[in-house]
Amino acid sequence: MSAYEQLLERFRDISRLGASLALLDWDQETYMPSGGVEGRAEQIALLSALMHEKLTSDETGALLERAEPGRSDAFGETNVREARRQYEREKKLPTDLVRRTAQASAVAKSAWAKARGKDDFAEFAPHLSTLIELKREAADLIGFEGERYDALMDEFEPGMTAAAIAPVFAELRTFTSDFLKSLEDAPRSPDDSILTRVYPIDVQARVSRRLAAALNFDFERGRCDESAHPFCTSIGGPGDVRITTRYLERFLSSSMFGTMHEVGHALYEQGLPREALFAPAGEAVSLGIHESQSRLWENLVGRSLAFWNHHYAALQQDFPEALGDVSLDAFYGAINAVKPSLIRVEADEVTYNLHIVLRFELERELLEGKLAVNDLPERWNESMREMLGVVPDCNANGCLQDIHWSMGAFGYFPTYALGNLYACQLFDAARAALGDLDEQISRGETQPLLNWLRENVHAHGKRYEAAELVERVTGKPLSMAPFATYVREKFGAVYGV
Ligand code: ZN
Predict the structure, then answer these.
(1) In terms of Cα–Cα distance, which of 328, 325, 337 is closest to 308?
(2) DSSP secondary-structure letter at 251?
(3) Per-residue pLDDT for the chain (497 aa), expressed as one digit of tens each?
(4) What global pTM score does this model have?
(5) Which long-range contacts (CB under 8 A, 24 or more apart) does 111-117 make?
């Protein structure tokens, strides 16, 4: 075996360990009894340490020096480049720190779930402090040019920095508050209370599966379960991609759009290049690109009039009591009502990004020590009042709502807003290429759009960085303009402004 082939085999093994880790994690979030937390934390910490050791060993370093990909390997260069990037980043982190972080976050995750359930921030605070300490230590070891945040964000969005994001977010914030102001005197305002009627959970589960299938989710290569916080995970490659959803009897959107969102993630995972299976090049580009896929299917398709033109009659039959008297127009308005609210995952498309801008600011302050953990709830509530004009009634609906910080995932949130922007850029490009995209969606045909995404985004694996990929596919660098146009046209029509 050549050095390159040995290197690939090493990374395939690392990927196999990662898949085992993902399965442990999936189980913890879905079916594991709460008594399993401590044992699971130890298993996860051990596997994380083994992965880290294998990745950063001297053998990996030696193979990287000699690895020359064959010309016939279309992903050869990407494999070597990506392997080197991962090696160099991880090499800076001592195994002990990796193990301590994995263990602390597995315990913090369960403490967070309890604290949120009881609305008791004090129970979560010490765990959050520990994780912030560990992440500061990691960021300082990895190194950065701008601020600590960059070193952490690089794990989720390689190549992106806080300095590059800040002006885009500032523009996004101004645009959003201006647009919200323009809605204040709108002649029309949709009634979204119909979404909080009674929607039997067993029927919601059936509808979720049907919608997932309508978006081409492959149940032979994936499954859908329930969890408190919906997610998508790949258990080793495109052949086993799992999503979860959450059912609320009196809120249809949670499961319906939650499912379409996670299906978007899953379609990306199911479409990654088989030629680079388990190899470094065979993974998703970044979380921002990942989120562009979930938001595209959830919002640009799933909340479009075209989509419901085809699917609404069936939905009315599923929920005759809740939707029998609701016209398609009224339903379309309800699922697109714009209303500043407390919970990020249930926010409308217009105000959603403000939730991200808020988190982006607060977590940078937490990392830099400008904001103390104990002051977080108050600071959170102030920012909510300032940006969205609403104040949480409790911490469970405020700073305890997201799982991310309990996982030690600092620098993750911006990828959501980047995803929203990338989604609009990609959708515009798809429409230009496919011509009558809206008519296709109206006829229930989503395969051509998926094929286009497969070819232009999924099939590349990690060949390009996010910014480069988007520029190649759309002809333009990251821009807020397509999102702004989309918002003005769509919500302008819904509200008559
Ligand atoms: Zn997502």
Answers:
(1) 328
(2) B
(3) 999 999 999 999 999 999 999 999 999 999 999 899 899 989 998 999 999 999 999 999 999 999 999 888 899 999 999 999 999 999 999 989 998 998 899 899 889 999 999 999 999 999 999 999 999 999 999 999 999 999 999 999 999 999 999 999 999 999 999 999 999 999 999 999 999 999 999 999 999 999 999 999 999 999 999 998 899 999 988 999 999 999 999 999 999 999 999 999 999 999 999 999 999 999 999 999 999 999 999 999 999 999 999 999 999 999 999 999 999 999 999 999 999 999 998 899 999 999 999 999 999 999 999 999 999 999 999 999 999 999 999 999 999 999 999 999 999 999 999 999 999 999 999 999 999 999 999 999 999 999 999 999 999 999 999 999 999 999 999 999 999 999 999 999 999 99
(4) 0.94
(5) 111/406, 112/400, 112/403, 112/405, 112/406, 113/228, 113/406, 115/400, 116/396, 116/400, 116/401, 117/396
CA of 265 to the centre of ligand 1 (A): 7
Tokens encoding 360: 């982006």
Dihedral angle over CA of 119, 120, 123, 125, nearest 10: 90
Residue 226 β-bridge partners:
245
The terminus-to-terminus CA distance of the chain in angstroms comes to 66
Q: Beta strands 232-234 and 241-245: pairing type?
A: antiparallel
- Tokens standing for 451? 């094929």
In the reported structure, the alpha carbon of residue 66 is separated from the centroid of ligand 1 by a whole-number distance in angstroms of: 38
Say how far apart CA 139 and CA 149 lie, in whole Å: 7
- For 64, residues 6+ apart whose C-beta sits below 8 A from its C-beta are 7, 80, 83, 84, 87
Of the residues 29, 82, 157, 262, only one is catalytic, namely 262
Question: Is residue 439 among the annotated active site residues?
Answer: no
C-alpha 186 – ligand 1 centre gap (Å): 31
What is the distance in A from the centroid of ligand 1 to the CA of 219?
19
